[in-house]
Structures are given as structure tokens and as C-alpha cells.
Design goal:
Blueprint (H helix, E strand, L loop, with lengths): L4 E6 L5 H14 L4 E4 L13 E5 H10 L4 H7 L1 E3 L2 E5 L8 H8 L8 H18 L6 E5 L4 H10 L4 H15 L5 E6 L3 H11 L2 H12 L2 H5 L4 H22 L3 E6 L5 H12 L1
Parallel strand pairs: 1-6, 1-7, 2-6, 7-8
Antiparallel strand pairs: 3-5, 4-5
Helix pairs in contact: 5-7, 6-7, 9-11
Length: about 270
């Protein structure tokens, strides 16, 4: 393999998870060790998922508030620089109030300046501290999606700030010869609607509110499902535009026709 890192990106419902699993199975069939990390994996080596980030005083407050769980907290806590990181979803058999309190300090709830620094340095750790050898890491959505939702959906930051951050990260991962596969659809409404309808009402409400009632959505007067579609269309166009200016090798696949056999053949060629 020419790469140690394959990243799969695209809006919800574009087929990222299925594609990531296909890539893992294909590589393993070729005798290559592949490690897949999907969205929501708290053990992700380059993207903080369900992880609290606390400065010294906040960490000490947690220890004081939950003395019965001191041992367990210290087992999972890791200090990096001036912050303590606690993967709170890995805490089992503890008071749910502790998990809820830690969730309020989630990395993705940090102010943008702190998040920018924390995110960059975690990618840096991944590149510098991982023994890659012939292994291929497969990441789903942590490079574009998670950064964009933080910068744009939540904070309505200038797109250039997002692009600059991704440029910095792309330079970090350059030694891994990364390949980014971007799945997109011309008709976002048609491709996303069936995913939206299949999910629970709770998920639909949360996902819609997240994108239309804060940051970009609020500033642009987006509302309801149609506002969500408008956001996803903007996101697709912005991500594809940013990709064109990055040094990361990428391939774009318009998969509106759902001809997955043809798409997979293109991916195999790109991975050779």
C-alpha cells in the first residue's frame, strides 16, 4: 500500500460507514492489516470522542465532587500540557452524575481557540507516536465533518479559519500519504431524506436543532428540515472547495445512482 491512512468523508447518509467497512475488508483480503475507527469511537487515536478536557482547577473540582470515584478517574485520566483528558464513556460502574458532569466539559464544547489547539496536537500525537509499519488506518468523518460542524455549525466561524486548520492538519499527515474518499450527491434532499426518516424522532430533532439553531443556522435564519438540507448543501460545497486546495490526495465519488460495485472498483484502483 502507498498509504497508511484512508479517510472517508461525506454528509450523513452518503454511505461513509458502509464504505469504511468495505475498505477494511478489502485490505484484509489483500493481506494488509487495517484498523478502522468510526464516528463515535472513544478510543479514536486522532479525534477526541466523548472525552472531557479540563484545566487544573476544573479537574480538582471533579475530584472533590466525586471522591468515591477517585481511583477510577485517575485510571482513565491523562494529562497533556495544561489539560486533563477523561474519556468519560469509558467510565463504567460510576455515578451517572459524574458522566454527565464530565460531558459538559466535552472537547467539542470548548471555545474555538482551545479546541483548535487541542485538535491539532492530537493529530500531531497520532502521527508522531504511532508505529505505522505496513498498517493502514481507516478514519470515518473525523477530518472534515467533525471540524466543520465545530467551526461552522456551532460557531459560524469564517470558512478560511476552518480551511487554515485543515491545511495545518493535512501537512501533519502528509508523511502517511493519506487518501481521502469523498462521497457526495448532487441532490442532497433526495439522498438524505430516507436516512432522516429512518432515524428516531429524538435523533431528528437533535440533528436538526444542532444545525439550524446555533452558529451558522441561526445567523442565516435556517429553520426545520428545509434549513437542515440547506446547511448540508452548503457543507458539501464548502468541503469540496476546501479539498481542492489541500495537498491531501482525494477522490470524489458522486454516488447518487447507488452503483456501489462501480464505486468500489474506483476505490480499489485509488488504493493501489
Amino acid at each position: 500500500m502507498k498509504t497508511n491512512l484512508i479517510i472517508v468523508e461525506g454528509i450523513p447518509g452518503s454511505g461513509k460507514s458502509t464504505t469504511a467497512h468495505f475498505i477494511k475488508e478489502y485490505l484484509e483480503s489483500e493481506g494488509i492489516t487495517a484498523k478502522l475507527f468510526q464516528e463515535g469511537d472513544s478510543r479514536h487515536p486522532a479525534d477526541y470522542e466523548s472525552t472531557a478536557c479540563l484545566h487544573e482547577d476544573q479537574f480538582n473540582d471533579i475530584l472533590e465532587a466525586f471522591p468515591e470515584h477517585l481511583k477510577r478517574i485517575w485510571e482513565v485520566a491523562e494529562k497533556k500540557g495544561n489539560h486533563y483528558f477523561i474519556p468519560y464513556r469509558q467510565l463504567t460502574n460510576v455515578d451517572s452524575a459524574l458522566v454527565d458532569e464530565l460531558a459538559s466539559y466535552d472537547v467539542y464544547e470548548l471555545n474555538l481557540d482551545t479546541f483548535e489547539d487541542v485538535s491539532y496536537h492530537y493529530w500531531k500525537e497520532f502521527v508522531e507516536q504511532t508505529e505505522f509499519e505496513d498498517e493502514v488506518y481507516i478514519f470515518e468523518c473525523c477530518f472534515l465533518q467533525n471540524q466543520l460542524t465545530k467551526y461552522i455549525a456551532m460557531h459560524n466561524a469564517e470558512p478560511k479559519r476552518l480551511a487554515d486548520q485543515l491545511q495545518k492538519i493535512s501537512k501533519l499527515i502528509a508523511p502517511l500519504n493519506p487518501l481521502l474518499i469523498y462521497l457526495y450527491q448532487e441532490d442532497v434532499d433526495r439522498s438524505f431524506h430516507h436516512v432522516y426518516e429512518e432515524r428516531s424522532q429524538e435523533w431528528r430533532q437533535f440533528f436538526t436543532d444542532y444545525h439550524v439553531k446555533q452558529g451558522y443556522g441561526k445567523a442565516n435564519g435556517l429553520e426545520g428540515y428545509q434549513g437542515l438540507v440547506e446547511f448540508l448543501e452548503m457543507r458539501r460545497d464548502l468541503e469540496m472547495g476546501i479539498l481542492e486546495d489541500l495537498s491531501v490526495k482525494h477522490m470524489l465519488i458522486e454516488n447518487g445512482e447507488k452503483d456501489w460495485d462501480a464505486y468500489y472498483e474506483k476505490m480499489k484502483e485509488a488504493m493501489k
